[in-house]
C-alpha cells in the first residue's frame, strides 16, 4: 500500500454514471402516498412540483443512470473531489486505525450539495422551467442551487430556516451574489408560514416548515417548480458520484474501508458516500459497516418511528415511509442546521430497517471538540454538520483500538465551515449547550401524526 | 489543443523546487540598508527577526532551491492547484481570447498565502523558535500562518489591520480556531501602535502600521521571531510554486500565455505566477507580457516613486529600494485589504524599473462588477483582491478583441471571497465608492520620507 496523503482522480477518470440503489435493495421501499387519497402517487401527481425527468428518476429501477454531458461539464469545475489520509488526525488521537476522508468542501458552494443542484437545475431548464423555489437550512443547499440556477438561466427563491438566516448572514449574501432571492422562514408569504407564525410568532423555523412554504409557492403557481436538497430518491442518487469516486480512490490507495461514516440530516451526503459501497456488500461479498451519525437533539434514526409521515411540517408533500420524529417536530437550535430535519429519506429508512446500515447519535459539544481537533491537525475547518461525521469516525477508531482490531475507516467530510465560524466562536466562549431530548417529547410529536 | 475545463497535475507531478529569480535578473536589486547606519544590512542584523535559513534565502543567488520534504507534505493537502479555462466568462463577455486562471483558493485558508506560511513556520520550527508575530490585512495571511504555526507547534500573535478586523470578523474567528491570538492594529501593546493612536485615535490601521507593531514585538523579545506575508525575496520565492505548476499545466493544455495578470499588494501572488514565466522570457526567448494590477487608491507601481523607504509605517524595518507612496501613506478603506500597502517588493520594483513587468491601476467598483460577473459564470466568488486580477484579464481581452489580435491570457485567482461577503453586500446595496487620489496627497506623503 502506498502512503498517499491525497488520492486524486483525473478529470477523465471521473465516473459518468450515478448509481441507483433501488436496483439492488433486498426490499424495495414502500411507495409514497398521495396526501389526500392515501393512494400511491402517480407521476402526474408530481408534475406541478418537478420536471418529468426527475419524476422518472425518482421511481427508476435501472442500476446506473447516465450523467448528462452538461452536468459532467459543471461537475468538473470542482470534481473529482480528493480523498485524504487523515494522518495528522490519526497521530493526534494515537490510533492504530487508518482514517481516510472524502472532501466535498471544494465545490463552489463549499459542500456536496452542488452534486444534485446542478442536475436538478439542468433537468428543469431542459423542460423549460423559468423559476424554482426551494428551502435551505444552514444554507449549503440554497447556495449550491443558487449558482446552478443562475448558470442555467432560472430564477430562484429560497426559503431559509430563520435561525440559520440569523446565524449565518454570509450564506444569504452568497445566495444574493449568485442572484437568488432569500426569505427567512416561516414567512408571511405563504399560508403555511402564516399558520406557523400564528402558533408561534418567534418560531426559529425548521427544514420541515421551509419545505412547506416552498412547496406551497410551487403548487399554487403553474410557472414555478420546486427543488429539494435531500430525502428524495433522485437527490440521493445524484450524490452517489461521491461514493463512486471513493471506490476508485480506495483502489488507487490499495486499501478498502471496513467502516464508512457520514453525518445524517435527510440522508444525502451519507447516501452519496455509502450506497456504492453497499452495492459492493450486496453484489461482491464485501463486508463494510455503514454508520450514519445524527444529532442527539434530532434522533429520527435512533429514536424515531418507521411509519408514513409528511416530508414537511404542514402536510403538503406526499406521505413517505420513513423513520420520523413527527412532521411537527421542531429540533433544538443546534448549529448543524443541515441536520435539523424530522425524517429520513425513504431509501435510507428502508436500508436501516433491513439492517444494511447502522445509526448513532452524538452531542453537539463533543462534535465541536472533534471539529476543532480536526481543523488544528488536518487544516480544514469543517462545517458543523461534518463534525458529526468526524466524531463518528474518531469514536469508531477508538473502539477498534480498544478491541485490538485496527480498522480502515472512510468518512465523508461533506463541507467546510467558512460560513459557520460564529458557531466556533460560541464554542470557544463556552456558549454551546447540549440539548437533552425526553422520550415524552418525541412521543408527543409522534402522537400528532394522524 | 485539447478543450480542457480544468487542467490538473497529480501529486507526483508537483514541482519540488522554488525558483529564485535573483539568478536571472539583468540588474540585481539594490541591497536593503540598516535603518540606523544606512549601510547594507548583514545577516546578523536580521537574526532577531528571522531564522538563519530564511535570511540565507533572502540573499540567495541559486536559480532553484529545494522544497523540504515536510513542506511538500503539507503543500499536498491543497496542491497542485488547478488551472481552469474560463470558458463561461469568455462567453459572457463575448471575447475571442482564451482566458485561463490558476486557482489558489482551495488551500485551507482560502488563498495563496499558505504557500509561504508553511515553509516559514517550518524553518522557524527547525531553528527552535517557539513564538512568532506577524501582521495581516484582509486576514488571508494571518489565517494561513495560524494553521502552519499550530501544525509545527509554534505560538502565533497576529496584528490585524483594524478596518479589516471590523469588516471581516470571520477571519479573526478562523485564526482563533487555528489557535492564534489576534489583536486589532494599531493597538496599545506596542510603542509603534501608541504613536499612531496618539496622532489619530480613529486610525483604520494599515499593513505598514501592523508590520511596525509585529516587528517591535519580535525585536524587543529574544524568544520571539517575526514573519512577513509578502514583499521580501524569500516570500516571493516560496510563491513561485504557483507559476512552476502553471507552466506544466499550460503545456498539458497545449497552450502558452501571451499575457499574465495578477493583483498587486506587496507582490507575492503576482510574483508567484509571473516569475517562472519571466525566466522563460529571459532564458528561452518567450515573449509574455506580465501585468500587475493595483488599486487606484493605492497606486505605488503606477504613481509611486522608486527610492529607499521603510517597509513599515514607523520606520523599524530595513530600508528597501522600491516603488513606494511613502511609509506614512494610509490608503483609503477599500475592501481589498490585502492590496492596501504603501510599497512594492524589492524584486518586483527592480523588474518594473527594468521594464520586465508592467503595471495598471483599477477602481474598486469596476472590480466588483467583474467579480460578480465571474461568480455568476465561473461559480467561484473571488476575494476582493482577486477582482483586480479578473478586471485586468477582462480589460486585456477586450483590448485584444478591439485590435483584432486575440490573445491567450492567464491570471492568478489568488483566493476566494467567503470571508468578504460583507463587501459584496455593500456592493449590491450601492454603498461601495471609488476613491480619487490627488497628486498632492501622494507628493505630501513622499515628502515625509527623510
What does this structure look like?
Two copies of one chain form a homodimer. The mean pLDDT of chain A is 95. Chain A has 450 residues and is an alpha/beta fold. Chain A contains 19 helices and 15 strands. In chain A, helix 6 runs parallel beside helix 8 (169-177). The first copy, chain A, has a domain at 5-12 and 68-110 and 234-447: Rossmann fold. In chain A, strand 12 (305-310) and strand 13 form a beta hairpin. Chain A is globular. The interface between A and B is large, with 41 and 41 residues.
What's the oligomerization state? homodimer
**Biggest interface found:** A-B, 41 and 41 residues
How far apart, in Å, are the first and last alpha carbons of chain A? 55 Å
Q: Helix coverage percent of residues of chain A? A: 40-55%
* CATH architecture assignment of the domain at 5-12 and 68-110 and 234-447 in chain A: 3-Layer(aba) Sandwich
What is the radius of gyration of chain A? Answer: 20 Å
Overall spatial form of chain A = globular
Our count of helices of chain A gives 19
Mean pLDDT of chain A: 95
Strand order of the largest sheet of chain A: 1-4-5-15-10-11-14
Q: What is the CATH class name of the domain at 5-12 and 68-110 and 234-447 in chain A?
A: Alpha Beta
How can the largest sheet of chain A be summarized? 7 strands, mixed
Low-confidence stretches of chain A: none
Query: What is the fold-level CATH name, i.e. the topology of the domain at 5-12 and 68-110 and 234-447 in chain A?
Result: Rossmann fold
Total beta strand runs of chain A: 15
Q: In percent, how much strand structure appears in the residues of chain A?
A: 15-25%
Helices and strands of chain A: which structural class?
alpha/beta
